[in-house]
Queue: 3 jobs
Job 1
Amino acid sequence: MIVGIDLGTTNSAVAVWRDGEAQLIPNALGDFLTPSAISIGEDDQVIVGLPARDRRETHPGRTATAFKRLMGTQQRTKLGRHLFDAEQLSALILGSLKADAETFLGEPVTEAVITVPAYFNDRQRKATRRAGELAGFNVRRLLNEPTAAALAYGLQDRGEKEPFLVFDLGGGTFDVSIVEIFDGIIEVRASAGDNRLGGEDFNEIVVDLARKELPADLLELNSPNIIELQRAAAERTRRALSENDSADFVITIGDRQEKVQITAAAFEAAAEPLVARLRDPVLRSLRDSGVMAETLSEIVLVGGATRMPIVRRAVTRMFGRFPDATINADHAIALGAAVQAGLLSRDEALDEVRLTDVCPFTLGVNNAVRDARGGMQTGIFSPIIERNTPIPASRVNYYHTISDNQQAIVFDIYQGEAREVKHNIKLGTMRIPVPPKPAGHVTVECRFSYDTSGLLEVDVTVPDTGLTYNLVIFDEDAKIANQQMEQRRAVLAQLKVHPRDDATNQAVLARAARCYESFIADRRELVGTWILEFEAALAAQDPRTIEHARKQITTALDHLEGERFL
Ligand code: AMP
């Protein structure tokens, strides 16, 4: 049996082709989505999925999320006393999905189709393939995510030259692709996007609206994870607003709980500027592919954030017709991978053409910018080559001195997508001496050149002195990664994965611990009592007692912090 896997940045999912249709496979908690999160327990056990994500706040030094962004790099993440690269972390997610599939199907599962973003380059694709192999899969094929979405919607059953537009708005990124079949080969004709636009940005809108109404002293309370609490409250409110005309923003900080009612109308008015940004990538993808909007056979919505009515209306307005959203937006890619798996097992697989090579990450330098109050904010990322730029590419930016008689400009070179450089990956540093002059009077030219082998060349020219400085940054060879396969497999083999039959209880305990840390006083005490009661039920080892206790604590926690979501 071949399974289809969506290995996502936020969530992953696995599906199979069975009885003539693609079917999703539930994990040990009964969910179809498994958060792409890994945590290492104090007992050195690997925790995967929802309980791992709940430990992100309580055990930040032992928990990793969003590691898909590091695929194809040598960057390692330290979890407890272990160091992992993105391939190994992905392998642990894949291994967990494999176990879910084996439990569901009742037989060993060794073959998989795994999806990757259309803009993944060769290195990132090879890394994904190796992650699959590390998890014990024979990776039959890597499939572009938009192609998978189009397959889930039946592209393969349409005639030739019926292009699909795949509109994918996820938690943090927005991708638009035009997918087409020609001569039995599927091609992603064009891909455009905005890697800084997703559900999280809409959460910020909700937080801003709520903060206007929240008592000022509440916001001054010194809660260590206030940002995360607001974000989680906003996420719940926004999801509720997808179904209702108004919803409560509920936040519990320490021993206080506050509620602010937010109407869909207010949210949508405030979200207009974000919605306006959806238009440009759509136009670019149409322009780049030479496809006319009227000839699109289907407009397909994927990514959880397309559930927002305001997004759906915007798409309908853009195209003058309704998009197709009959398949659950979070499931479409895994289901499409299962369609490809089904075709492969019948030896009828569709072939795919790859996009030309593109630069997978944004490359740039650190910069200082003037903030609203006239002060200088440092450590801000200034992109030079944007993600998705076809390579080889060469781009230039100009930078000025910021203080009088400044002796040098230091360029730290980064790869990544975050606004603050500290969240990106540092690749190197250059110190460029400049002649002392009043602030802003010296300008230097910084040129980045990036090629298909992953080689980045930085040239900085100081026109005042006529001097040029050069730095070449090599990508550590993927060969090393290949050579290390056995060693890395051995590292993973040593780790014990938490027993599957204990997954639900473990998830509840991780959540309760997170709540305990975020509350204080009476609420904290209450959660502490519930944890003790639940632990006592676990110690009794009677399944019925455990189930009863689990329901009780879950209901109580839902009541305290609102219902949970994936
Ligand atoms: P994905 O990256 O495709 O898993 O999408 C995750 C994003 O979808 C997150 O930002 C979620 O807030 C968003 N999302 C999921 N369900 C809903 C919903 N019912 N209403 C609004 N946004 C949602």
Job 2
Amino acid sequence: MKTHIFKVDINNIDNNVIVKAAEIIKSGGLVAFPTETVYGLGGDGLNPNAAKKIYSAKGRPSDNPLILHISDIGQLSPLVREIPENALKLAKEFWPGPLTMIFKKSDIVPNETSGGLDTVAVRFPVNKVAQALITASGTPIAAPSANTSGRPSPTRASHVEYDLNGKIDMIIDGGACKFGLESTIIDVTGNIPCLLRPGSITLEMLRSVLGEVNVDKAVVSKLDKGELPKAPGMKYKHYSPSADVVIVRGDRNKMVDKINELISQTDKGLKVGVIATEENKERYINCEVLVAGSIKEPETIAANLFKMLRKCDHHHIDRVFAEGLCEDELGLAIMNRLKKAAGYCIIEV
Ligand code: TXA
Ligand code: MG
């Protein structure tokens, strides 16, 4: 069975497509839809069977909880036991937008959706197609990224089709996702909020609203054996193309020299790629250069990163060297995804 794909113009949304998609959600089916971060694989967030279908379509372990997406702030309170002051402050500043907050869950959220945890992740996306679908469905939509578990998240409808064609009922194609990295996740259940996954709402932005914010160790470093991240999904191998990914970081000139040296040392039978910045793209030899964007525009690098990782597969690249970035502001989120793709293989220069 081929999954039906419907294109929508985000500036002129065809309501027939939204109604059709909402009917699927209401009857327990699955629809992939665009958000401003990445495409989501949506199902009725209050229907345990829909959650089971999501896990099965993605090949995702069922202890990895799903985010509930709402399209009106009034939908939050039935899902949670309390709304802490810090959550109100963040919602006022960043919702609708690429921020997910973790709350203590209410009883209406099924254990299947929350992966057995007593907390629930909630996000109010700003993308108009996502909002229209949630509103028309009349239920919070549970949606992980619409990729096969372990693969880079989809930022185009074609990525979803590649991974999930035939496994889900419908794909709404709303074009490329604006931010291209999954939402920032912050746990607001404790006294001091804790960043669990960095994203386009940066740590600096969160601290400017809340003051003190802790950072879960899993955000920047590989956990030791036996340690568990607070966001269960952060423990799984992620974002991986088939190629081996190696990050090289440090002084930007030395980095280019090191990457060229590593290319020259690579077995000639292997196809080599470099995920490069615009500024350095002419400087690599004997490899395929994948340009992510300018170092001066980290937003562009973020928006293109997953597409580049997917390109490695399409171009049959065996080993890819990625230019490392400084881990402040958006660089923290970009490096978090790259490090996972690289299995923390980082060469410092
Ligand atoms: O931008 C996004 O957040 C996208 C779009 C579709 O909204 N969704 C997304 O979902 O990235 P997913 O399932 O791929 O990643 C959700 C992450 C996982 O790492 C999961 O473990 C974590 O959120 N998570 C979900 N519920 C949680 C909870 N109650 N406590 C801690 N972490 C949670
Ligand atoms: Mg995901």
Job 3
Amino acid sequence: MEEIKIYKAQNEPVLSYMKNSKERVNVESTYNNMFNSKVDIPLYIGSEKILTSERKNILPPHDHKNIVGTFSLANKKHVDDAIDNLLDFKESWSTMHWKKRCDIFLLAADLVAGKYRAKITAGTMIGQSKNIFQAEIDAACEFADFLRFNVSYLTEIYNEQPIDGPGKTNILEYRPLEGFVYSVTPFNFTAIGGNLCASAALMGNVILWKPSDNQMYTAKIIMDIFEEAGLPPGVINLVSGDPILISDIALSHPEFSGLHFTGSTTVFKELWKKIGNNIHNYRDYPRIVGETGGKDFIFCHPSAKIDSARTAIIRGGFEYQGQKCSAASRVYIPKSISKELISELIEKTKKIKMGSPIDFNNFMNAVIHKNAFDRISNYISYARESQDCDIVCGGECDDSVGYFVDPTIIITRNKQFKTMQEEIFGPVITIYVYDDNEWKEMLNTVDSTSHYALTGAFISEDEDSIDFATKKLIYSAGNFYINDKCSGAVVGQQPFGGSRASGTDDKAGSKLNLLRWVSPRLISTTHNPPTEFKYDYMD
Ligand code: NAD
């Protein structure tokens, strides 16, 4: 058995982007160049890059009249061709020495963190409307981290071997899945788009990638990086366009072996149903991995420090306009500190600046598209008309230039209020104020209010209460934070994912995820095979 050295990955440092710093000047000029030019994004099928006649425009959410590019829309033949091409190429990729596959993705990580850093960061600012810090921690750091840590996990997995028996050598071979993997990715993280392909590809799989329409701008940059890193064409084929058309073809194919999905709960459930309906057509039982929605909470215990609670709520709720699956959207505050904490929250929230990401003073930018803008506005209108709550901050929405929604704070008197239960995916937090002496019972409410269980935070200075809540909320969140916001997981430090309606909890950015993309084969060699069927005791 080949000796495998464990690769030790390290987190990519976050750059500061202080005024006049080299990285800031670089990103600003890259942003301006990209914003004032146009890119046409093809389908990627093997070595072919196909620009189709049917295209969609790419519009920055903060300036939706400025077209920065187009992307191609796949038809049935394109999707069929993309799958055929993957299957043709599969053998040469899966039999390539694992070290070579690792080298390709490690080089890709260096390109993300180096040569392409300004481009992928500026692309994320333009295409997904993230401020520089949010773009940096996603597109540069998290993406590079995923690529490097996955190599580390691969070496750990390959090293996990069974023991040998008397006269027997046993080897576990971590084969990739037999068919192809279908990756369907969301708009909100460039890093997720790249990782949902790269993680399974690293383990030797071939991938059909369907990115979100609203992440296509950086999907191209990811494909460019993979190509420059030496990823052979035909390992990851990108098809963009109608998600139902593409999914129906992929999920009815006999060689479909796995779904790697991140996105909303409704879409994931639909895809799971389709897989169930096709179960007799497949050679394999497909692996189904889905990280989905959240209704993430921050619970302040009566001992909570006001400053840290306030910062956790504002950052957790409003960073990236609340469009993180882990964003805080329901908050529980004890009566004893509610007056002070809420008035400080309002005061600070009013100071938040919002606008284009190229103005570095803006903490918030636009929400992703018209549908999101309408959905969030409808929740705010519902709250405005309800007798059960008051909007105490924000509430204004303006889509004349970009899709801008004010950071909004609602206080409800109904702990089961609609905005305490449903994922809004926008900059709206709802607060419920509880009686201090009921804090333990309130944890039951936290657990049962929503069907999601992704992230949650408990803010407290009291050790016993932390212990109690950690036990009580065991299934309420897959990522549980103590004295912090409920977002901002770092690869290698906080493996990410939740259960219940929030997903299959396969923990992106961990070994657990990579294990889903292999189908291990045990090879057992007997050195002196028995020559007589009778056992010794029978004589
Ligand atoms: P979405 O579900 O609208 O889209 C996700 C992907 O599914 C996109 O590629 C989209 O084109 C595709 N899709 C949409 N409708 C489809 C259909 N009918 N059939 C097949 N594919 C379809 O999600 P989004 O708006 O891109 O992202 C936001 C959602 O993702 C939120 O619910 C958020 O909580 C979730 N999310 C979860 C995590 C996590 O780790 N748990 C991370 C990021 C985002």
